Amino acid sequence: MKKEINGETGIVGIIGGNINYTLSPFLHNQLLDYYLINNRYLPLHVSEGRLVAAIEGLRALNAKGVNITIPFKEKTIEMMDTIEYSAFRVGAINTIVIKDKLLLGFNTDLIGFKRSLMRGNEIELKGKRAVILGAGGAARAVIYVLCTEGVKNISIFNRTPVKGERIKKTYQGFFPECCIQVFSLKDSCLQEKINQTDLLINATPLGSYPNIDFNPLPDNILLNHRLIAYDLIYSPAKTAFLKQAEQSGAKTVNGCKMLVYQAVESFYLWTGIKPEEKIVRQLIRQLQDKVQQSKIALN
Ligand code: NAP
Q1: Which of 20, 24, 91, 214 has the fewest Cβ atoms within 10 angstroms?
Q2: For 44-102, how does the pLDDT look when each residue is reduced to its tens digit (9 = 90+)?
Q3: Residue nearest to atom 28 of ligand 1 (CA)
Q4: 64, 73, 128, 168: which is the annotated catalytic residue?
Q5: 207 CB under 6 A from ligand 1?
Q6: Is the CB of 115 under 6 A from ligand 1?
């Protein structure tokens, strides 16, 4: 049952640069309807030059909170009044709670990524090796979780290596026991690093709608069956990167579960309600169906 929009309806939403294909409004409005909460979750397209005005506007509009997505997760952290400890260490936020006109920043990608990897998968990360493609806000969250779980060696490959170097500099101080190395996405050692790794993670948007044929891996790269290949992209469900991994016999994971787990945590921060596991499982199924429907609609 839906709550009707009225004079007391609260505003929540997602601020991003290109959010035409986001399924966060679908997830959050499902949760709001299920728990009969008088809020509506809206997509809020914001251009880079208007980001400060948009974030400040949240106070004026008395919004309850927003998610922050690509490409603003790192930029928005400077605009917060308070930042939760792990979000501060990560240097990126994906959730803002507005309380008494104060902006509080959180990073629920951390819990989203961790749960998506650990729940239902018997994955032991301690002592493992990981290769990360990308060094943006999501990569920061992923690398942070891997470090806290005891991954011993992380190779970051990014188009702009200096951004990876910044992550290395900060994280090496927090996690001296983890060896972090940074390379250009075009570096010839990518194949060698992939041959040695346990986890290969795409944290770039390459392969997401509408450019579904894009692959973050250069053409000549070969994958193998010992890998776990994780793509943070959730739509399409099977990116070119995951198709390539599957053909090599690797275990594959897409971003669907992460999206649901991070959404559930943001929902909790805004409402104080922790959705039960059966609701979370239902949301994952609904999201998977929705992704399938969008694929049909877009083809
Ligand atoms: P971001 O902060 O803007 O970072 C994007 C990263 O991708 C940067 O490292 C960037 O490299 C790289 N990149 C972008 N375009 C590229 C291109 N054409 N060629 C090579 N590299 C390119 O974005 P983000 O917030 O980290 O998000 C990254 C992806 O993760 C998005 O697809 C997002 O939807 C997904 N994500 C999914 C979930 C989930 O719950 N499933 C959660 C968070 C994010 P440069 O540093 O060189 O610019």
Answers
A1: 20
A2: 999 999 999 999 999 999 999 999 999 999 999 999 999 999 999 999 999 999 999 99
A3: 204
A4: 73
A5: no
A6: no
Residue 179 to residue 196: CA distance in whole angstroms: 14
The burial class, CB within 10 Å (0-12 / 13-18 / 19+), for 225 is: exposed
Residues 6+ apart with CB under 8 A from 30: 283, 286
Helix (H, G, I), strand (E, B) or coil at 24: helix
DSSP-assigned beta bridge partners for residue 39: 10
Q: Which domains does the chain have, with CATH numbers?
A: 10-107+259-298 (3.40.50.10860), 111-254 (3.40.50.720)
Residue with tokens 């951004």: 163
Nearest ligand 1 atom to the CA of 70 is 25
Q: Is the CB of 234 under 6 A from ligand 1?
A: yes
CA end-to-end distance (rounded Å), the chain: 32
Question: In angstroms, rounded to a whole number, what is the distance separating the alpha carbons of residues 271 and 269?
Answer: 6
Is 243 one of the annotated active-site residues of the chain?
Answer: no
Could you give phi then psi for residue 129, rounded to 5 degrees?
A: -115, 145
3-state secondary structure of 269: helix
Residue 232 Cα to ligand 1 middle (Å): 9
| Whether the Cβ atoms of residue 66 and residue 129 lie closer than 8 Å to each other | no
Please give the number of the atom of ligand 1 that sits closest to the Cα of 263. Answer: 40
Q: What is the pTM of this model?
A: 0.96
List the Cα angle 34/93/260 in 5-degree steps: 30
Q: Which of 72, 106, 159 to mutate to test the pocket of ligand 1 (most atoms within 8 A of CB)?
A: 159
pLDDT confidence band for 296 (50 / 70 / 90): low
Q: Which ligand 1 atom sits closest to the C-alpha of 139?
A: 26
Q: Could you give the CA distance from residue 45 to residue 94 in angstroms, rounded to a whole number?
A: 15
